[in-house]
Amino acid sequence: MSHEHVSYLELLARGAGTEAYDRPVLLARASGAGPEALADLEEAKQLALRVRAELEGRRRREAELSALFATAHDLAGLRDLDAVLRAIVQRARSLLGTEVAYLSLNDPTAGDTYMRVTEGSVSARFQQVRLGMGEGLGGLVAQTARPYVTDDYFEDPRFQHTRTIDAAVRDEGLVAILGVPLSLGSQVIGVLFAADRRARVFEREQVALLASFAAHAAVAIDTANLLAETRSALAELERANDIIREHSAVIERASEVHDRLSELVLHGGGVHDVADAVSEVLGGTVEFTETGAGAARRTGGHAVREGDDWVAAVSAGGETLGALVLHGQPELDPVDQRTLERAALVTSLLLLARRSAGEAEQRVRGELLDDLLDAPDRDRGLLRERAARLRTDSEAPHVVLAARIDRAAGDAADPDAGGRESADRQRLWSAASHLAATRHGLASARDGGTVLLLPLGPGEGAAELARQTARSLGGTLREPVTVGASAPVRTLLDRPDQVAVAYQEARRCLDALVLLRRSGQGAAAEDLGFLGLLLADGRDIDGFVGRTIGQVVAYDRRRGTELVRTLDAYFASGMSPARTKDELHVHVNTVAQRLERVGRLLGPDWQSPARALEIQLALRLHALSDAVTGT
Known about the structure:
Blueprint: H1 3-14, H2 23-30, H3 35-76, H4 81-96, E1 100-107, E2 112-119, H5 124-127, E3 130-132, H6 136-144, E4 148-150, H7 163-172, E5 176-184, E6 187-196, H8 204-266, H9 271-282, E7 285-289, H10 294-298, E8 304-306, E9 309-316, E10 319-327, H11 334-374, H12 380-389, E11 398-404, H13 417-438, E12 442-446, E13 449-455, H14 462-477, E14 482-485, H15 497-515, E15 522-524, H16 529-535, H17 541-559, H18 563-572, H19 577-584, H20 588-602, H21 609-629
Parallel strand pairs: 14-15
Antiparallel strand pairs: 1-2, 1-6, 2-3, 4-5, 5-6, 7-10, 8-9, 9-10, 11-13, 11-14, 12-13
């Protein structure tokens, strides 16, 4: 046997690629071998290639048989249908050497077809596509119950193209597709596909192999359906047996919880008392939550399961007040479900009773504030007694706050605007009443908004209280609430008429905020500069002067400088340093140094139009004050 023939045997032994079989002929030709030797080698090469093809075919058939046996083994021990179908699709893709394989099933209820398993897919749209019956290559396979193959999907006119299918196939980049039917008897229940992103020809053996996998997939689906039906029947029998066996215990628990809930209602128990009682009877943990009752509300208030929890809506008169949530008991029999529902009903009664008491107290608080605003000449002793019953400290300084939700001007044309404004006023009054109760103050609906009378805390000012109130109400209602505050009222019941005066000041401040496009904020007159001076009822001139130029005045007094005089001359000269130095008879550098010092005292924006206007007004008021006092 020649060396070259031995080379072919070595190539066969190690499974070399077909291109390696040309090497012995090339080497012999390069070494000067004669025609007979070259012909002999060529014949040996062809024989070796035939042997290689035969071995390759046997290996492929062995792999196919192994995959089919493995699939049959999976079916014998079927536990998870998805896992079996996924294994079938993975093996089909691997043995056919395609880039993508997938399996679709018919949905008789929806009347369409959906993707059940994909392997090698990268397009989310393709993985989630749903097809109408009879559409695409799969529709042709389902209609004829025969395999179909296309070398170029988009150029094939044999089946119905739709925009949805073509978009999904194009998104995945598929070109060549082979589809074989999944059949149970004469019924096609789906299609198994193998596809490539390039043009290719599927051989007859590959079509037969994919059909074998499709048969296994159909058997797996049928087996899983039978198992599911069997399990369902067994489960029903077991549940019926359990219900019969535990019926006495369930009835006893229901009777116990009925007695305990009745006792709680009679003795004035609270919501958490109900939750604790039901927790003990049902053997889990029950909690009341103001959210999370959506599913129960949609099912008419019946207890429903959400994950491992059970939820029963707490509602009354179409309004959902919250929910009772049972943790730790994922399986709940119907009687215990009704027990949870009865507990939810008792909870709603307790909440309604508590709400009625709260609303009654809020109305009483509103009536007292209305009397302070509208009838301040009422008997002061009686007013003081009513304030004491509501735990209102009449000796503490109070601030009157006007609050309002301001809608955009364009909302006025909305046909539903009137109803929304009414709902806004009701929501605002409810939130303000709650805030007033927590701060031992008063609240009432008035003039399209709400008025509050709140006590000042230690070190707290009217402006800060207004900002806090705007943030609190806005956070509760989840939309901007504008709040204007009055100056503190220090004689709440000694001079009740001051409350009405303070309310008018708060309303003017509120209107000013809206005009200044500061809706959603809170402020007192002191926050609004010279506008605050005009709006405030007390005309706090000294306070305005102090807030505006107080640091400059104090600097002159401490250092003996003339910054105030320089500011007067600077504004009188049209804000010209050159004319200012002539007015003061000083060097222009002196004017610049003084103005620089003013900037450090008042801030870098002191020459802006708004600040400059306030400073000039404060200078005039300061000069008038000095003239009056003779300083």
